[in-house]
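Checklist before submission:
- one chain only
- standard amino acids only
- sequence pasted in full

Submission:
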Amino acid sequence: MVARLLLVLGLLAAATPALADGDNVVVLGLRSIEGDDDVANDVTDRLREGVATVPGWIASPTAVSMSQMSLAHGCDELDAACLGDIARGLQADRIIYGTVRRTTAREDYDFALGLSLYDAQAGAITKQVDDTVPRAEANYDALGPRVEKLLGRLSSTLQGGAIAVQVNVPDADVRVNGQSVGKARDGSLRLEGLQDGQYRIEVHKDGFTPHVSTVTIVEGTETMLSAVLNREGIDPADYPAEASSGHELAWLGWSLIGVSGAALVGTGVAMLRINSIDEEELLNTYRNQVAIGNVKAREEGTRVFNDVCDAAEGGFEYELQRSDIEEVADLCAEADTWEVLQWVFVGTAVVAGGVGTYLVLTAEPESNEQVRRSGPASRWAIQPSVGHRSARVTATLQF
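Returned file contents:
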């Protein structure tokens, strides 16, 4: 108890924020779940530097970590009650804290960054944002722009969700539920503060066909909307027929694809037979005898066999019958044959499959007239929506 009190007093002595107009913001040192402290420290340093650039925020000189404050206040977890005690002790109006964790247990992991904002006046955690940082960018020099965007999301006073509209032409007019909300200057427009629900998004520009789609907004999420506008007044029949650039070997392509499939089956048969031979009882018995013989051979300085098949081909019987050794040699020869066939099948499958696919994809269509009449190709628009608690992807087909 005394040690905890001394720790609190020491932390409070180090936390004497300067008086100024604006909210005093403390950034608690982030915690790394897997022990990547260098990454957590770099993110923390960038956050503390970035807070000073946010209008209305004053960066506190306090430099303490989540773990220190949790220990000092006896908190098992940083909930609103514990954060309230910490805010009063540090004379903070807002507290930023968070964690850094690896995205996977494999070697190709990146870092998942989660940040939260506690508002002392509201007595609640008011914002939570997250981001995935590629491992190559998880250093102090590369983190600047990413942390700046995260602070922008934390400091935003707007509530609800957001839509980021991307258009393939500049200065298109954007309407939400029939009301004009602005133009997509340079092909982009961001809409914020939208409440939960569905919104009808229309993108218009003179001389182009409009884009219309429905977007579902969820609290705390940002949805990307890609709008593709095509020019009006163009009859699909006016599109010139494309010159024939294909060939008539589609039948050969499909035949080669069939050969590739058969070769894959042959590969599977070869693998099964090799595995079956490897599990033969006689072969395993001889393998054990060779291992025992190798121990004696090392002591006597005579020949050691690293391959049981070499021993069988050399006629070394150990404690087996001559006929057994000949059978082992036959099994080894059969396994060698199947191994060669296996690689022949693999090569055939790859080459025949690749050439066959190429011939099918580059073959001339049945009728160039059908291509000419089809007009412009259909377009897909993918709309991802990612939030702290949910994620979705919406695909829209224009034709």
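Reviewer check: DSSP finds ten helices and 15 strands in the chain.
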